[in-house]
């Protein structure tokens, strides 16, 4: 019996797994077949007999066929990385020379920004303007930032009273396995690849099976700039086969994973067998707390962005909005008006579109499941709560869902505590600061939070008590790449960003010399 045929305790049909279909036969034309990138080149693997069918979620058209890589392919990537490591062709370069390569990669992505944006939009269903101005632009920034960061990093020395000196060196950690999700493909891939390479590591990266195209383009860029063979390898496939093989391989020293908490738990258990360094950025159910002294219009405008950017498919989106009772009703009405007036749902490739598709039909079904569950839990759908109906024939059957506001739920309900990862926010009412803090910290996640208040004493005090790795006061998604990024509780383990990334992708060594 399939997962989709099962029902929950409410009688609702459980949503299906968000896994693309595969095929054992390729079309006669192989122009849209992508390959794994190993040892500095795209390789043909005749033994691969299964291919993932990668579709555009807005049109359902086939974009590409992606190899279902398994252990044999991962071993090839490891062999290429080991050879690169032993030869010192990458780790033996100076920090300045490695930084120059990163700058070259950034330059080439920037030159091809429209191509990257088109690929990202078709793969994910996000508006092409968002893909260009946020995702691809950030990829360029990531490579340039870490090129500068590695140039400027320093180590310590300690002179002892007996004329002995201790000094610290920082060496690459080894072979790094990088696994990224489907919501921000090139954005998050570059966030991890750039510092890993900057530190001199060899990389084996895996994109999501749902969104392989910008990772493929990045491999083209890396081939073009002639990065030493084996320094960067890209493999494609399902998580259960390809991803598991990366995590389990004993010669891969470091694992950095962004994805769901359930998968992250499995990754952590597998990596522990070999005592690998692990960084996990996992699920979130982030609160926005709006105090009564804050401007209601500004709060609604920020919530319209923080709850619904990228169709709510960003780990930092605020899906729980906790509003003081004195402004609750006004806030809900203003947010409703903003969403209904300003949301332009349509073909993601049109520049006027502001709201694209969910990543897949299966994910849309999951989102709608929670909208229906909310009603059974006593919630009220203020707006949205259904599939968007479009007149454009080219995208009529796409995975479009309406921005959704739900009120009246208990803050402990399933809809208000489980990660939906879509354009759905629940709005809750509070009367005291203590009550707001209890509501904000109630969930098992702790990635980020937003606090809106004109009283900075409250903002500072309240932020300090929030169980979140990142807190924004009177803003959202304002990122300084030097700061630590990561979550508390079941939102992950470890921190990346700036020096935190350089430390994670390196090993510090103390050398003591008797003078």
From TrEMBL:
<feature type="active site">
    <location>
        <position position="281"/>
    </location>
</feature>
<dbReference type="InterPro" id="IPR016163">
    <property type="entry name" value="Ald_DH_C"/>
</dbReference>
<keyword id="KW-0560">Oxidoreductase</keyword>
<comment type="similarity">
    <text>Belongs to the aldehyde dehydrogenase family.</text>
</comment>
<dbReference type="InterPro" id="IPR015590">
    <property type="entry name" value="Aldehyde_DH_dom"/>
</dbReference>
<keyword id="KW-0520">NAD</keyword>
<protein>
    <submittedName>
        <fullName>Aldehyde dehydrogenase</fullName>
    </submittedName>
</protein>
<dbReference type="InterPro" id="IPR016161">
    <property type="entry name" value="Ald_DH/histidinol_DH"/>
</dbReference>
<dbReference type="InterPro" id="IPR016162">
    <property type="entry name" value="Ald_DH_N"/>
</dbReference>
<dbReference type="Pfam" id="PF00171">
    <property type="entry name" value="Aldedh"/>
</dbReference>
<feature type="domain" description="Aldehyde dehydrogenase">
    <location>
        <begin position="52"/>
        <end position="511"/>
    </location>
</feature>
<feature type="compositionally biased region" description="Polar residues">
    <location>
        <begin position="1"/>
        <end position="21"/>
    </location>
</feature>
<feature type="region of interest" description="Disordered">
    <location>
        <begin position="1"/>
        <end position="30"/>
    </location>
</feature>
<dbReference type="InterPro" id="IPR016160">
    <property type="entry name" value="Ald_DH_CS_CYS"/>
</dbReference>
<dbReference type="InterPro" id="IPR029510">
    <property type="entry name" value="Ald_DH_CS_GLU"/>
</dbReference>
<dbReference type="GO" id="GO:0016620">
    <property type="term" value="F:oxidoreductase activity, acting on the aldehyde or oxo group of donors, NAD or NADP as acceptor"/>
</dbReference>
